[in-house]
Design a protein that fits this description.
The protein is mainly α. The chain has seven helices and two strands; from the N terminus they run ααααααββα. It has two domains: about 1-40; about 50-155, no CATH class. The protein has helices at about 10-15, 20-30, 35-40, 50-60, 75-90, 95-115, 150-155; strands at about 115-120, 125-130. A two-stranded antiparallel sheet has the order 1-2. Strand 1 (about 115-120) and strand 2 (about 125-130) form a beta hairpin. The longest helix has 17 residues, at about 95-115.
């Protein structure tokens, strides 16, 4: 295939571990997301572990109040949006259009309000937003400086990506 000389296996592995989605890689190399996915799978780079990676990563930061009712903090809008957004950042290409829309809206609101998501299990709602500080950098949640990250991939996924450049007319 003509694109194989442009997108090497090593490059694809690197982009995968940088949490680039199949769609982002495809756009950069002028190929289809399906072609990227097929090649990625042949290299053994599977995205099924992403839901677990998100759950484990967030568990390293918070113990979220979870009960099988609507009162569970785990089921609140902010928690769902964060999980879906992180799945997308980690390259999950199995998100539905509704999930992608939720992730887009959540990211847009974080940027517009310049806030980060926080959690307090002692409150009824659990989730709240506070203004972003310089210590937060581009991170979407508050993460104490003395708390280690579960891994580098998850740490990178917590940062807002650069805003897309607006095309001038």
């Amino acid at each position: 295939m003509p694109w194989e000389s442009e997108l090497t296996d090593a490059t694809l592995v690197k982009l995968f571990h940088l949490s680039r989605t199949d769609r982002e890689i495809a756009k950069e190399y002028g190929i289809t997301p399906q072609a990227v996915s097929k090649r990625r799978v042949k290299l053994g780079l599977r995205r099924q572990e992403i839901v677990d990676l998100v759950a484990e990563g967030l568990a390293a930061r918070w113990t979220v109040f979870t009960v099988p009712t609507a009162e569970s903090h785990h089921s609140r809008h902010s928690a769902r949006a964060l999980r879906v957004w992180l799945r997308r950042r980690l390259g999950d290409d199995k998100l539905s259009p509704a999930q992608n829309k939720l992730a887009d809206q959540w990211e847009r609101n974080l940027r517009r309000r310049d806030t980060v998501l926080c959690y307090d299990p002692s409150t009824r709602e659990g989730w709240f937003y506070r203004p972003r500080t310089p210590a937060d950098g581009m991170r979407v949640i508050d993460w104490p400086a003395d708390l280690p990250f579960p891994n580098e991939r998850f740490k990178r996924a917590l940062d807002l990506p650069p805003e897309p450049q607006k095309e001038s007319a």
